[in-house]
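User: Let's play a game. I give you a shape written as tokens, and you guess the letters that built it. Ready? Here's round one.
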């Protein structure tokens, strides 16, 4: 079988890992990597056994699929260039900077019958996958995603940098339209909001309280999901899932509910490898990717609404 020819556009911190995964996958050929920094492209290309390019357009006609791992402001143009040349695209989150751009990418991929996948990596975290089977009509969701300050990613605010991970996960679990948003945030070390909190109300009555900070002294990625007769605590960082379920008994009027609490350790995994493998599988089978352009668009739309609310409520 002819190998799937791939490339990675943008080989900074995360892009280099994309290149490593493609290089290691069976049935996949990593043709090259492209970066505006020729020395960095050459370094990663040498490590992965492929060619280096300083312009992504030089790869047109040489590849079947690419990962686009560049600053957010370049997502649309580079993804559009490759889709226009019949190349499948995995674009890092957020899918683009505007809804119009997201719609243009989705429409182009649909017309050309190409895979457009968005890099919402937490969907491939084993904690989320284990929890999804237990979630049933959540009533309230609380998420916290905090990290120490890092210059990488500050071309956008904390909502598009970090909070968008949880926005996408919550919408995936709740499965209902957003009806209202309240938000507050503050710029601390950068010109954009570095800390933010949003309260999201969904059409089915569920409410989500979402907090993100990139100026913390620690890292934490947790989500709590409350539903009738149960709650779940998802720790994405430590790969644990705690489930507390109310036990049914014959005494319906029992004043003290009996709980069964089970904590699972999900162990080590490689979500990025799983994400890229999923992208390759969608291309080879013709199935929908696990995180489609439509999923990325919904997350972006909510993130932009949060940003609009921040502009009114910023401290």
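Assistant: Ready! My guess for every position:
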């Amino acid at each position: 079988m002819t190998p799937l020819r791939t490339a990675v556009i943008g080989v900074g911190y995360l892009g280099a890992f994309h290149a490593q995964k493609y290089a290691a996958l069976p049935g996949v050929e990593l043709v090259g990597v492209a970066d505006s920094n020729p020395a960095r492209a050459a370094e990663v290309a040498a490590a992965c056994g492929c060619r280096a390019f300083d312009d992504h357009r030089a790869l047109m006609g040489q590849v079947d699929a690419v990962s686009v791992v560049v600053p957010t402001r370049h997502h649309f143009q580079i993804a559009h260039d490759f889709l226009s040349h019949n190349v499948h695209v995995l674009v890092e989150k957020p899918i683009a900077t505007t809804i119009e751009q997201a719609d243009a990418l989705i429409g182009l991929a649909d017309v050309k019958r190409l895979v457009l996948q968005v890099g919402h990596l937490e969907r491939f975290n084993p904690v989320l996958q284990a929890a999804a089977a237990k979630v049933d009509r959540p009533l309230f969701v609380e998420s916290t995603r905090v990290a120490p300050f890092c210059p990488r990613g500050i071309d956008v605010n904390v909502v598009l940098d970090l909070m968008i991970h949880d926005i996408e996960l919550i919408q995936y679990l709740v499965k209902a339209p957003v009806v209202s948003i309240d938000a507050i945030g503050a710029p601390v070390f950068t010109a954009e909001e570095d800390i933010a909190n949003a309260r999201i109300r969904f059409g089915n009555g569920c409410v989500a309280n979402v907090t993100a900070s990139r100026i913390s002294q620690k890292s934490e990625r947790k989500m709590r999901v409350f539903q009738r007769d149960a709650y779940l605590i998802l720790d994405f960082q430590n790969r644990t899932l705690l489930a507390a379920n109310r036990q049914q008994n014959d005494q319906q009027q029992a004043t003290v509910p009996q709980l069964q609490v089970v904590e699972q350790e999900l162990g080590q995994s490689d979500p990025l490898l799983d994400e890229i493998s999923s992208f390759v599988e969608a291309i080879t089978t013709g199935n929908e990717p696990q995180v489609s352009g439509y999923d990325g668009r919904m997350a972006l739309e909510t993130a932009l609404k949060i940003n609009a609310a921040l502009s009114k409520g910023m401290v």
